[in-house]
Task: inverse folding
């Protein structure tokens, strides 16, 4: 430990190398709570050259490196459990080279999502990739997991907004990929290998990001839905009838946990088994009138029984909190999360079969449903009983996960829609990827990281 700390201090300086217990515990763990953090050190580079120097040193010492951003991940993709050195990007938060014509900007990996959103707003633009952890998640981590969030139905994934990357490979080489070009027909686009690779090929240290025009008068409509099947019926009705920027759903159990915190009020007089939150631009009264007419059709069909539309920006934010505060509300219960997806057309049948499995296999556990159902993404959260040991709870959830993943495979879906694979879902990758695909993934890892030092043990079994 002393040798490692001394050597790292020659690359950086004393105040940017930490080995104290508090720092090791804080930076060696993400939002998952099923592993014990055990890094040997945490380092805080300030430049691409420093990151490259750290990687070259780690190759010489055969020491693993784990990237650390906002540590908001939910699949143990940023957990250090085997004496690795954690590389934090907290000191790399510069935003530069804004181009108002191209609507692009260069960011360092440690830029927080909300920081880029604020920068875009200051210039009359919009960064649309959005989720509840926007105030702490970092762009490097978002890119490494191809983060999705609540606006995918309109704006797509993080991948769609990355115009160029600067990366440090597992060998310590610095690659500058695509340089912000819209058109570039010169062979393999290595940029897209690093997007979603969970830091297993190298470190994303910077990116050229694209921005969008600001949406006009975003309006939120919250509906009470009595039946699970009605969720997708409402989606088809509204998605066919008007352009949506978001379409989310959550259960009464999820809402109950949000309300228990005392920060929000129940939106309707009576509880409903499910709720749908949709968002749309309403630059004129015509869009709101159209939404009301579609709501009336939903109630006539029995798919919805109540509704409320935001009348101000603050009310829209308050309605969004009912959905966005769910994860934080249930975190004290140590939830086991299944983040799964199928194509939207298969979602109704998939949800019916999934509901039956969860009811059968979890008779004594509380299961909280919510998700970005407009893009086929469901979040299933199993809450740990207070008197149940964490190891026993994890074993039971893993047993049931096999049933869930068998169903995912049957519907040609994904075992991880947006949270990544990390350690938590690594051994289940075969439910979504063929043996041949995984062999190619291992081969790609070998090319970029021949010594296996970059985020070792994650993603590929």
Result:
């Amino acid at each position: 430990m002393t040798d490692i700390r001394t050597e790292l201090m020659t690359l950086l300086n004393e105040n940017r190398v930490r080995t104290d217990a508090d720092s090791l515990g804080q930076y060696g763990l993400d939002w998952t709570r099923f592993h014990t953090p055990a890094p040997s050190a945490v380092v805080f580079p300030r430049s691409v050259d420093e990151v490259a120097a750290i990687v070259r040193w780690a190759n010489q010492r055969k020491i693993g490196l784990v990237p650390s951003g906002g540590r908001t991940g939910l699949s143990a993709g940023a957990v250090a459990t085997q004496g690795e050195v954690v590389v934090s990007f907290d000191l790399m938060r510069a935003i530069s080279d804004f181009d108002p014509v191209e609507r692009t900007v260069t960011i360092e990996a440690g830029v927080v999502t909300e920081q880029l959103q604020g920068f875009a707003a200051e210039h009359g633009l919009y960064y649309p990739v959005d989720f509840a952890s926007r105030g702490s998640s970092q762009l490097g981590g978002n890119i490494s997991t191809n983060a999705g969030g609540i606006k995918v139905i309109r704006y797509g994934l993080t991948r769609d907004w990355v115009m160029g990357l600067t990366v440090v490979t597992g060998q310590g080489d610095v690659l500058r990929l695509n340089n912000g070009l819209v058109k570039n027909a010169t062979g393999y686009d290595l940029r897209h290998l690093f997007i979603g690779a969970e830091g297993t090929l190298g470190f994303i240290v910077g990116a050229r990001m694209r921005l969008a025009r600001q949406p006009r008068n975003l309006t939120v409509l919250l509906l009470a839905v009595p039946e699970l099947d009605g969720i997708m019926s409402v989606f088809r009705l509204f998605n066919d009838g008007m352009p949506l920027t978001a379409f989310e759903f959550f259960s009464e159990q999820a809402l109950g946990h949000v309300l228990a915190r005392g920060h929000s009020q129940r939106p309707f007089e009576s509880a409903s088994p499910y709720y749908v939150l949709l968002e749309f631009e309403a630059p004129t009264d015509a869009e709101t009138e159209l939404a009301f007419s579609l709501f009336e059709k939903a109630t006539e069909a029995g798919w919805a029984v109540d509704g409320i539309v935001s009348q101000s920006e603050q009310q829209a934010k308050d309605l969004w909190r009912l959905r966005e505060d769910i994860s934080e509300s249930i975190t004290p219960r140590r939830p086991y999360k299944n983040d799964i997806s199928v194509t939207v057309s298969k979602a109704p049948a998939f949800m019916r079969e999934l509901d039956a499995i969860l009811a059968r296999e979890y008779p004594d556990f509380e299961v909280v449903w919510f998700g970005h159902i407009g893009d086929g993404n469901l979040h299933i959260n199993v809450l740990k009983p207070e008197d149940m040991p964490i190891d026993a709870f994890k074993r039971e959830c893993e047993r049931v996960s096999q049933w869930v993943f068998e169903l995912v495979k049957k519907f040609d879906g994904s075992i991880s829609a947006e949270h990544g694979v990390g350690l938590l879902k690594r051994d289940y990758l075969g439910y979504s990827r063929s043996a041949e695909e995984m062999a190619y993934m291992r081969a790609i890892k070998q090319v970029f990281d021949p010594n296996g030092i970059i985020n070792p043990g994650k993603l590929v079994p």
